[in-house]
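Re: [ENG-882] Designed sequences occasionally contain unexpected residues at chain ends

Forwarding the minimal case from QA. Structure tokens:
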């Protein structure tokens, strides 16, 4: 990926908070039990900032994204905790009526949903669908509406947009569909864009183009971005902060450089080792043994325990509270405050009780030393077999 994509909107720390989640939970009743798809997610997002959320398939990313707009995954799903759009008002989005929600969708927060093909109506033209989004937030009709639609499609880089207005979604490539969804999301000039895997189905070249587009749009309008993906390399390039999601929880959140240089959760560490470039060319990529847990009947202990090579006898009893890295209390860690990771004390958060040991095991040159509790043969925290984290 090219370096030009890098978007670390510096100075975001002092800016207005535009989105805030506190202990967000989404529970979905299913015949197999209660699926806890989001389980205590907290963060704040400031104007112009990018939060990258990375996690394996099924970790709860899409459910969390939609809950940020007050959307539930099924009619019987229960949303709890709070999501607020500060700056607009202090009301909990999770308690708003559909009419109240519609009023802020597009204008304050907009979603670029996963799967562009299913997100668009296959029997309506592209022009119609973009026009509907524009008309929902701006009192435009006739020629003025037509002009606004065209401008929007040109802004997201649809070539010869005027000739494509009457096309149907099946006539668009994957990259153009993704651009169209971004255009629809931008129609109301939102302060926050939540982009759910906007590049997953695209080839690398088009992926680069879409990410560049998001960077440009952010720079032009000062929008904040929640960028969701299963690709750590993408969020590493794009984000001010990264949240690593696993089994419905943010296991670790930190500023991008902090998280990459000093990961304090074995899962983050393992993801970093699985990145192409983390190992020599002739070496296979690392693999995290086992698979993520089912999200029904989850234990209250550490979700990563069954896969963790750093676990010690204290881990099964550990209730997964968020700890602040670097704060001095109870041996070097303190429970995180409700701001979910902003401010000096709560900047780097982890759910691993052994996060200080992880740091100690890393030598000053960045190499690794053998952990006496390491259960792998290699002395590394993940087994060296070939597999990507996708
Ligand atoms: N409507 C639904 N009914 C039942 N389970 C659901 C529903 N939507 C999502 N889930 C479950 O919630 C979990 C998280 O899903 P999702 O947020 O889509 O994961 P991700 O986006 O990280 O791949 C998964 O176990 C998924 O099966
Ligand atoms: S708390 Fe224990 S089991 Fe969980 S990630 Fe940390 S070391 Fe591993
Ligand atoms: Mg998803």
């Amino acid at each position: 990926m090219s370096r030009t994509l890098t978007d670390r909107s510096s100075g975001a720390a002092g800016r207005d908070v535009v989105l805030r989640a506190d202990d967000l939970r989404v529970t979905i009743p299913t015949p197999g039990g209660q699926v806890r798809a989001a389980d205590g997610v907290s963060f704040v997002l400031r104007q112009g900032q990018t939060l990258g959320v990375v996690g394996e398939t099924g970790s709860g990313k899409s459910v969390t994204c939609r809950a940020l707009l007050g959307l539930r995954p099924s009619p019987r799903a229960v949303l709890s905790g709070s999501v607020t759009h500060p700056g607009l008002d202090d009301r909990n989005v999770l308690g708003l009526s559909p009419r109240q929600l519609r009023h802020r969708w597009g204008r304050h927060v907009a979603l670029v949903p996963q799967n562009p093909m299913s997100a668009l109506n296959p029997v309506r033209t592209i022009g119609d669908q973009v026009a509907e989004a524009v008309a929902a937030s701006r009192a435009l009709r006739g020629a003025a509406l037509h002009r606004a639609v065209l401008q929007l499609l040109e802004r997201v880089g649809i070539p010869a947009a005027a000739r494509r207005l009457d096309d149907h979604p099946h006539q668009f490539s994957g990259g153009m569909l993704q651009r169209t969804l971004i255009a629809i999301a931008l129609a109301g000039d939102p302060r926050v864009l939540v982009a759910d895997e906007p590049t997953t189905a695209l080839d690398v070249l088009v992926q680069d183009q879409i990410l560049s587009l998001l960077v440009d749009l952010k720079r032009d309008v000062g929008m904040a971005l929640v960028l969701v993906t299963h690709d750590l390399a993408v969020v590493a390039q794009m984000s001010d902060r990264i949240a690593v999601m696993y089994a419905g929880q943010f296991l670790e959140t930190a500023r991008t450089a902090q998280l990459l240089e000093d990961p304090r959760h074995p899962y983050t560490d393992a993801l970093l080792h699985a990145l192409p470039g983390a190992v020599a060319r002739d070496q296979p990529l690392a693999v995290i043994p086992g698979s993520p847990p089912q999200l029904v009947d989850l234990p209250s202990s550490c979700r990563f325990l069954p896969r963790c090579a750093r676990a010690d006898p204290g881990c099964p009893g550990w209730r997964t509270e968020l700890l602040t890295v670097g704060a001095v209390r109870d041996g070097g860690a303190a429970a995180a405050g409700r701001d979910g990771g902003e401010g000096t004390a709560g900047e780097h958060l982890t759910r691993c009780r052994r996060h200080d040991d992880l740091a100690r095991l890393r030598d000053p040159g960045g190499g690794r030393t053998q952990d006496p509790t390491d259960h792998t043969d290699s002395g590394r925290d993940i087994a060296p077999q070939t597999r990507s984290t996708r």
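QA comment: On inspection the terminal residues look reasonable. Residues 265-266, 302, 304-305, 308, 310-311, 315, 318, 352-354 surround iron/sulfur cluster (ligand 2) (CB under 6 Å). Proposing we downgrade this to a documentation issue.
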